[in-house]
Specification:
- By secondary structure, the protein is of the alpha+beta class.
- It has one domain: Secreted effector protein pipB2 fold (2-Layer Sandwich).
- The chain has two helices and seven strands.
- The strands form two sheets. The chain has a four-stranded mixed sheet with strand order 1-7-6-5.
- A hairpin with a 6-residue loop joins strand 2 and strand 3.
- Helix 1 crosses helix 2.
- The longest helix is centred in the first third of the chain and has 17 residues.
- The protein is globular.
- The termini are far apart.
Length: about 180
């Protein structure tokens, strides 16, 4: 059954990761009043979220905004509602909020002729964040991505401490 979350005026939002590089799990968290929403992300989604939030902020006039609750760490216990499949961003000029729309990974099991009830569709969340929290997500997201495994200079893929079988060398190591 699908679930819908509406946090139009989130008081706090951040991204974070748990685990060691190469084994980390990434999350997006937001809180509005007594509701805490945690969603599971992929590293690439964190990088894209930070990049596109930066682009949105660069198009907006600079405002003096109070810092607010600048908590960077994830709130424990980290219990995600679902893994995110798609992320969309928009700017609500009336509320001066950046809106993050997150949708659950599609189930993909339905046959083309199968009728799907709307409650069986993917879960979704709509989170409205301030510019200050967008800036926090940009900074923390960039730090998370940079803190990962080093990338191979030849193929750009992450390198494990045990070694790396680079497709550009056909799996052979230089002698």
């Amino acid at each position: 059954m699908s679930r819908s979350f509406e946090l139009p005026e989130a008081e706090w939002a951040t991204v974070g990761a748990l685990g060691e590089p190469g084994q980390r799990t990434f999350y997006l968290q937001a809180r509005q009043e007594d509701q805490l929403l945690t969603l599971k992300l992929e590293k690439q989604q964190v990088a894209a979220l930070a990049q596109f939030l930066g682009e949105i902020l660069s198009d907006l006039p600079v405002t003096e905004e109070p810092g607010g609750d600048k908590v960077e760490n994830l709130v424990e216990p980290v219990l995600p509602e679902w893994p995110v499949g798609t992320l969309q961003l928009a700017y609500d000029s009336g509320a001066d909020r950046i809106v993050i729309l997150a949708e659950e990974i599609g189930k993909g099991d339905a046959e083309p002729t199968e009728v799907i009830h709307p409650s069986d569709g993917p879960s979704a969340a709509r989170i409205g964040i301030s510019r200050a929290h967008a800036a926090l997500i940009i900074r923390v997201g960039a730090e998370l991505v940079e803190a990962g495994r080093p990338t191979c200079p030849l193929c750009g893929r992450p390198m494990d401490p045990e070694g790396h079988s680079c497709p550009r060398t056909n799996g052979h190591r230089p002698s």
